[in-house]
Amino acid sequence: MSDRLEQQREEVRYRVLRLIESKPEISQRELADELGVSLGQINYQLKALKERGLIKVGNFLRSDNKLAYVYLLTPKGVADKLSITKRFLLRKRHEFELLKCELEQLEREAIDESKD
């Protein structure tokens, strides 16, 4: 599996964990909508997170008397989210530095061209 694909999967997992942590009562459909992914992918992600022991799933009644789920991060899930956060920050800082260098180069080129 490519590093890029693994990074994408990890980023989706991170975003799911973040949303679950902030909104434990969020529905799968709401997760899919907020993350811009399919409902099937969310279902797959949640099942995988549960199997890995990163989340617990519980039932509760919503105000409209429909049975719904609540998703809770386990201690292992919190640790995984922290680990992903650290890797994400390192990647984004590296991307930022590359982008900053590119912008500086473009600015120099623009200044040089305006002098002509």
The description of the largest β-sheet is: 2 strands, antiparallel
Indicate the CATH architecture. Answer: Orthogonal Bundle
Gyration radius over CA: 20 Å
- Number of DSSP strands? 2
Helix-strand string: HHHEEH
Label the structural class: alpha+beta
Portion in helices: over 70%
Number of helices: 4
Per the principal axes of the C-alpha atoms, what is the gross shape? elongated
Reading off the top of the CATH hierarchy, the class is best stated as Mainly Alpha
Beta-strand percent range: 5-15%
Report the mean per-residue pLDDT as an integer: 89
- The CATH topology assignment is Arc Repressor Mutant, subunit A
Walk me through the structure:
This protein has 116 residues and is an alpha+beta fold. The protein is built from four helices and two strands. It has helices at residues 3-22, 28-35, 39-51, 75-115; strands spanning 55-61, 67-73. β1 (55-61) and β2 form a beta hairpin. α1 packs across α4. The protein is elongated and about 70 Å long. The N and C termini lie far apart (49 Å). The mean pLDDT is 89.
